[in-house]
Design brief:
This protein has 10 helices and 8 strands. Strands 1, 2, 3, 4, 5, 6, 7 and 8 form an 8-stranded mixed beta sheet that branches. With about 325 residues, it is α/β, with parallel strands linked by helices.
Length: about 325
């Protein structure tokens, strides 16, 4: 690499790291202050929600994110679901629309980021907990019933962005129970007119090296395609339709191009127990067979973990 270019990249990383440290520290102070003034659920207060979104937008600026929005984020309560490419997805979506996220329990232990997540209403899923799915659905329902939006990544893992994995339907039950709409978001990263090879957080990537690579670049372009909200009474139907919207927006026909999974990012978060394959109360046999060929093909795919494992997204 050209020495001048390398020096510029190093200087850019140093500037952004300094800004990031200040911003994260400010986030802790802000969350603590809002908590003391508005209570433990400060993030559900309009004032707290506004402050949280502004903080996320500033974080995206520090990281060099350039978010381009296509479509209109829904204003009403509901479930946001998106394909998962990177931890940057969370920053991008949060800067575009006020929302609470569902994250794997590992994130809770991350310095500063985990603390901010706990204080700002993030819902955490505990791995290898047989009751995790039911608890997560209850938590999602609570957020939605408070008139808010909650976002999750139903693929249960990240990808390079060239394909879309199957949307596991378990957590869509929160929308069914509340009667709230589901809005799909197609996420795509571009660099110099091509798919971005730096933004995806996959394979053997570690958080800090990946963060530094992102910060070394002048900017990272991310496109968020908000689809028309969906309504439905069956989670299988909602999951298939949302997945179809994302595939259409990204021009992806199937998941054959989906690359390797990241370590520890088991396909679970939205994986439901096998008992879920049985018709539920109010679910007729015709609905149970809906999309049967697609679901049967998916169930035959090799899985790294059983259907009772959990994971909501990449780290």
């Amino acid at each position: 690499m050209n020495p001048v270019k390398a020096a510029r990249r190093a200087a850019r990383v140093c500037r952004r790291l300094a800004s990031l440290c200040v911003h994260l520290s400010w986030g802790l102070l802000l969350a603590g202050w809002l908590r003391s003034r508005l209570g433990p659920s400060w993030f559900r207060h309009p004032r707290g929600e506004t402050r949280r979104r502004r903080w996320q937008q500033a974080l995206g600026d520090i990281l060099g994110l350039r978010v381009h929005i296509d479509g209109r984020p829904m204003d009403e309560r509901g479930l946001l679901v998106a394909n998962h490419v990177s931890w940057l997805d969370i920053v991008a979506i949060a800067s575009a629309t006020p929302t609470t996220f569902l994250a794997k329990d590992d994130v809770r232990a991350w310095p500063i980021v985990g603390w901010l997540g706990q204080w700002s209403g993030t819902i955490f899923l505990r791995r290898a907990n047989l009751g995790a799915l039911g608890a997560a659905i209850d938590a999602l329902v609570e957020v939605i019933e408070h008139g808010q939006r909650v976002a999750l990544f139903p693929e249960g893992t990240t990808s390079e962005g060239r394909g879309v994995g199957p949307f596991h339907r378990g957590l869509f039950q929160a929308a069914v129970k509340t009667g709230a709409p589901v809005q799909a978001i197609a996420v795509r990263y571009r660099r110099a007119g091509e798919l971005d090879a730096i933004a995806p957080f996959i394979g053997e990537d570690a958080f800090v090296p990946h963060l530094l690579r992102v910060m070394a670049e002048p900017n990272t372009e991310v496109q968020l395609h908000f689809q028309a909200p969906l309504h439905g009474r069956q989670r299988r139907d909602l999951a298939l339709r949302a997945e179809g919207q994302v595939r259409a927006a990204l021009g992806v026909r199937d998941s054959s191009t989906l690359p390797r999974e990241a370590p520890g990012a088991e396909r679970s978060a939205a994986l439901q127990p096998r008992a879920d394959d049985q018709p539920q109360h109010g679910q007729g046999p015709d609905d149970h067979r809906a999309g049967g060929q697609i679901e049967q093909a998916r169930d035959q795919q090799p899985q790294a973990v059983t259907a009772r494992a959990q994971a909501v997204g990449r780290r």
